[in-house]
């Protein structure tokens, strides 16, 4: 029987069909991908250089995009900075809520709250947000946007940790107070690093705070299982 040279082996035919039917990304997906690349690039530049040395002209090169593409999505420095901080805060919120949901008992819940808060409040991005908010050259409307972004991102985190504490036996109203106070302590120590950064001392203070809360709960609510 004569051979059929035009016959393509089955695996090759399957591969060709797969390539031919690959789903094309929608315009919305391409737009979102470009925005994310820009925001990740801006975030990385702020992390490496700090806000004082941040130049929007460098973001496009960092993202591997044209300057025109960047300006299409973020025509001003303010719009880019606000969007970058919103992106960073959203990512931090996602991680915090995952930690709160995945915490295993009998793990030390107060320590988990402190660790999570330290990762956020001691981050360079939080300091950048503070720098922008306190900057006298920043437009009031931009300051309001940043504060709104911060509140929107952190409230779900407080709720997630409050629910985790409540699930361990701490009364809900008291759990909310403990979380709020703990976050305030960590935030305050983070701001102290602006003039006095002593990580070892901070570790000792946070250990004292953990013990204070445990002693309080043992006396007030013996059934609470924070560790």
Automatic annotation (TrEMBL):
HTH tetR-type domain boundaries? 32-92
- Where are the annotated segments for Disordered? 1-33
Ordered alphabetically, the record's keywords are: DNA-binding
Ranges of the DNA-binding region feature: 55-74
Gene3D superfamilies in the record, alphabetically? Answer: Tetracycline Repressor, domain 2
Q: Which InterPro entries does this entry report, sorted A to Z?
A: Homeodomain-like_sf, HTH-type_TetR-like_transc_reg, HTH_TetR
Question: This protein is called what?
Answer: HTH tetR-type domain-containing protein
Its taxonomic path starts at: Bacteria, Pseudomonadati, Pseudomonadota, Alphaproteobacteria, Hyphomicrobiales
